[in-house]
Amino acid sequence: MSDFSDTNWADSEFAREYLDNAEAYVPFRQEMHKVLGLYYRNFLLGEAPKSVLDLGCGDGILSLIVAGLDENASITLVDGSQEMLDRAAERLGPQGNFTCLRSSFQELAKNDPLEGSFDLVMSSLAIHHLNREDKTSLYKYVFSCLKPGGHFINIDVVLAPTDELENWYMQVWEEWIVRRKAEGKTDRDFTDIVRRYHENPDNVPDTLSFQLKALEETGYAHVDCFYKHGVFVIFGGRKGSGDR
């Protein structure tokens, strides 16, 4: 994988454009966020304070969801883009127990600046920027960061297992964007997003099956896909209560 400074995400204008328009071209983004909330309520919400790590946090939307569910949660937000971290700090405001750390995934794994371990590590639309080897390495690093019984959940895009399915998923994505504009949800035309997605060298998605297998081989339990719409998925697993 390229160094973060060489990617589009290091460009503040590129990062800002994504933040301002994600609702217009990420299908059912709010539904995916609801799934995260349901997962947190079912598996993590309780009396004991939880520690949460938000990897590639963007503007902090996942952290905001968790904070809204659990006011006692302690959340660490990590992103390689200062633009993203600034927007996250603005979104989250002065309330809550938040810590922001500027770091790329490579720097995180190499320098390990995180303190303590986490009940939940979560990420959204970030890990697909890693190549296959780096994805596997990150999953191992996340596993090492989890407390026994801790959870990992990833909202992301994946590569279809066949070209035929990939082409159909891209068509489904385009049709969703066209409907959004027809419904007045956006006044901009994002029908070129599929072309931009494929042409962007920062995007190197892998298949869902490969990543589920990578989690299992790392040692995660309860590995599964929790949501899927075309190439957009939510998947993850749990560290065994006896694992360290």
CATH class equals: Alpha Beta
Q: Briefly note the CATH topology name.
A: Rossmann fold
Which class best fits the helix and strand makeup?
alpha/beta
Strand content: 15-25%
Average pLDDT taken over every residue: 89
User: Would you identify the CATH architecture?
Assistant: 3-Layer(aba) Sandwich
Radius of gyration: 17 Å
Topology:
Elements: H1 12-25, H2 29-43, E1 51-55, H3 61-69, E2 74-79, H4 82-92, E3 97-102, H5 105-111, E4 118-124, H6 132-145, E5 146-157, H7 163-182, H8 193-199, H9 208-218, E6 221-229, E7 232-238
Parallel strand pairs: 1-2, 1-4, 2-3, 4-5
Antiparallel strand pairs: 5-7, 6-7
Describe the structure.
By secondary structure, this protein is an alpha/beta fold. It has one domain (4-159, 204-238): Vaccinia Virus protein VP39 (Rossmann fold, 3-Layer(aba) Sandwich). Helices cover 44% and strands 21% of the residues. The protein is built from nine helices and seven strands. Strands 3-2-1-4-5-7-6 form a seven-stranded mixed β-sheet, with helices on both faces. Strand 4, helix 6 and strand 5 (146-157) form a beta-alpha-beta unit. The radius of gyration is 17 Å and the shape is globular. 34% of the residues are buried.
